[in-house]
Amino acid sequence: MNIEKLLHMQLKLDQHIESEHGLGEEDLVDRKILALLVEIGELANETRSFKFWSKKGASAKEVILEEYVDGIHFILSLGLEIGLQEIELDEKHADAKELNEQFLLVYKAVTDFREERSVTHYFSLFNHYLTLGEVLGFSSMEVFDAYVEKNKVNYERQEEGY
Ligand SMILES: O=c1ccn([C@H]2C[C@H](O)[C@@H](COP(=O)(O)OP(=O)(O)OP(=O)(O)O)O2)c(=O)[nH]1
């Protein structure tokens, strides 16, 4: 996956959103962290993986993929917040766990990053999130394409005064 390209697209989108909403001077990190936690919750809800009380199945793959790439947006955006200009990810991510376990690992990685905004914690978060994508059955190309598509939608929503 061409992370450099995504990071650049994220930079442009974030600049656009910040100027639209007059947020140039504000520290948005905590709100982006909360937004990411909410997106992970929305993603988990669409998979229904933890709903042991229900027999209803998961949402369609495209719905789950769109939720997943919302999380990619906020993770890239957090990388920009800590000043990253390039992202070099491990070829091989952390060992994949069962889906619910992987969700909980990602949540923990987000809160660890909040406690210490270090590059190490950031990469750990990104790697756990990419592993989550693998556990969900998404290829890198599917993630890349869905990111590009949602990025476009995010611009359209800004234009609509969303
Ligand atoms: O600084 C920002 C702020 C937001 N986004 C993107 C991430 C995500 O792709 C989208 C917000 O998520 P979503 O589309 O779910 O927005 P929502 O307001 O929660 O939508 P809805 O009301 O449809 O649930 O905006 C960014 O990339 N950078």
From TrEMBL:
InterPro entries: dUTPase/dCTP_pyrophosphatase, UCP030140. Transmembrane segments: none annotated. It is an enzyme of class 3 (hydrolase). The lineage of its organism: Bacteria, Bacillati, Bacillota, Bacilli, Bacillales. It comes from the Bacteria. It comes from Rossellomorea oryzaecorticis. Keywords: Hydrolase. It holds the Pfam family dUTPase_2. GO terms for molecular function: dUTP diphosphatase activity. SUPFAM superfamilies: all-alpha NTP pyrophosphatases. Its EC number is 3.6.1.23. This is dUTP diphosphatase.
